[in-house]
Amino acid sequence: MEIMRLIVTGTVGAGKSTFIRSVSEIEVVDTDTRATDETALLKQKTTVAFDFGRLQFGPDMALHLYGTPGQSRFDFMWDILICKGHAYILLIAAHRPREFRQARKILNFMKERVQIPMIIGLTHTDCPGAWSEEDVYLSIGYIDKEQRPPMIKVNPTQRESVAEAVITLVQRLMESCAV
Amino acid sequence: MSITGNFADFSLPELLQFLDQGKKTGLLQIEFSPEAAGNSTKHTHYIWLHQGRLMAAADRLDQQGLTLMIAQRGWISERVISRITQISSCFVNTPLGLCLKSQGLLQPEQLKLLFHSQVLRPICALFQAQDGLFKFEPTLALPLGEMTGLSMCASEVILISLRALRDWRTLEEKLPDPTSGLSSLIGKQLPMQLNAQEWQVWEFVNGQVSLEQIANQLGISVKTIQQIAFRLIVIGLAEEHFMVANLPTPMMEEPISESTFTGSVPEPTQRSNVSQSFLKNLVGFLRTKAA
């Protein structure tokens, strides 16, 4: 079975779970797992949670989608997920400037850990107070226009929109594999 | 396109950094409700920027703020300033401060003092304000009557104002985590002058040492180190660097609640390359979904 693992990360309320749900062929799994090592001895119940979705498109081909944990702190679970991912999409809610700083933190964390193709998915662009694409780029630290990753508007509730976003990301991956 | 928000969402230092990095030109309007302003009327501040540089600030739009400041200091009367602006041709396209300087009525040092009082001091006070609403409107029109002719890039204003800040409560939640480190965003050449403590922290900007450890090594409180780190971050010199604790990676075991699952979640295995044919098939399949 050939599998591509796509990481869906982003800020609070940007639509990570909805994004995965819109394209997954299975009911999205919200995991809630216990640690079984020494950590468990120190802390009876170490809870980590992430979303999982799957899209099988051939007898031996599947896309797996992993949503990063909801909590703001980066922990081992982030490492587990992103170190195995082939590409990732960072979802940012355009109408929540409060979260831009967190988006920047996520970007830094990802850049430190992995060098894999990525795109930015801008959600809630039609909400009042939504910032423009250019301003969101700036606020998350992409000043040089030449160094920016692609940013696309995405509506996580619409399967077509999510599919378009995933296509864009897969195409980025194709380009990077071709190099 | 105008940008709106409030300080709870986007603090003023972050906003100024954004305007600086975007080389924005326009009018930043900051509004406080009567409750927040501590009086019965709404209080509004205006800050003019050109290419990310702060040109002037006032709490009025009639271009009389600078004139009043000069008159209150007893340097030139309002009547004289009014007369000069009427008869002098230089005021047509020159900031009031420079115009008065060219007439020999103000000295360079006086202009510096005016800029400090007009821009730096109020902005430092605004950093402590809560519940402010802001609106940035791009506009090329600059208020010559409010301008000293001096300007400062927003990053410098942020640095100076944050150094002077005593009450950090409004920025508390913006401070980097004590367990994080710092990594540099610039080359060897620092674009601005750091003070002694900032230099000490800058020595540790290598992504290897947490703020807690820096505090220990320097014998400075963690809170102070966080504040210095925030300064370095918000002026674009450094970035927060996250250090995941070196805990042993836990094994996944069976989910706690089986009922919530429709299937088991595969733990991501080692990343292996995906073939071009796989990716082409995936794109083809997704196109049917996107259609």
Which secondary structure elements does this structure contain, and how are they paired or packed?
The complex is a heterodimer of chains A (179) and B (291).
Chain A: E1 2-10, H1 16-23, E2 29-30, E3 33-34, H2 38-42, E4 47-48, E5 51-58, E6 61-67, H3 76-84, E7 87-93, H4 100-113, E8 118-123, H5 133-139, E9 151-153, H6 159-178
Parallel strand pairs in A: 1-6, 1-7, 7-8, 8-9
Antiparallel strand pairs in A: 2-5, 3-4, 5-6
Chain B: E1 3-6, H1 12-21, E2 26-32, H2 34-37, E3 43-50, E4 53-58, H3 65-72, H4 78-87, H5 96-102, H6 108-127, E5 133-138, E6 152-153, H7 154-164, E7 181-184, H8 196-202, H9 211-218, H10 222-234, E8 238-241, H11 276-290
Antiparallel strand pairs in B: 1-5, 2-3, 2-5, 3-4, 4-6, 7-8
Form type of chain B: globular
Radius of gyration of chain B, whole Å? 26 Å
Largest sheet of chain A: 7 strands, mixed
Total E-strand runs of chain A: 9
Report the CATH C-level class of chain A.
Alpha Beta
Alpha-beta classification of chain B: alpha+beta
Strand tally of chain B is: 8
What does this structure look like?
Chain A has six helices and nine strands. Chain A has helices at residues 16-23, 38-42, 76-84, 100-113, 133-139, 159-178, and strands at residues 2-10, 29-30, 33-34, 47-48, 51-58, 61-67, 87-93, 118-123, 151-153. In chain A, the strands form two sheets. Chain A has a seven-stranded mixed beta sheet with strand order 2-5-6-1-7-8-9, with helices on both faces. The radius of gyration of chain A is 16 Å and the shape is globular. Chain A starts with a strand and ends with a helix. Chain B has 291 residues and is an alpha+beta fold. Chain B has two domains: 3-164, no CATH class; 175-241, Arc Repressor Mutant, subunit A, CATH 1.10.10. Chain B has helices spanning 12-21, 34-37, 65-72, 78-87, 96-102, 108-127, 154-164, 196-202, 211-218, 222-234, 276-290; strands at residues 3-6, 26-32, 43-50, 53-58, 133-138, 152-153, 181-184, 238-241. In chain B, the strands form two sheets. Chain B has a six-stranded antiparallel beta sheet with strand order 1-5-2-3-4-6. Chain B has a two-stranded antiparallel sheet with strand order 7-8. In chain B, strand 3 and strand 4 form a beta hairpin. In chain B, helix 1 runs antiparallel to helix 7. Chains A and B meet through strand 1, strand 2, strand 3, helix 2 and strand 5 of A and strand 1, helix 1, strand 8 and helix 11 of B.
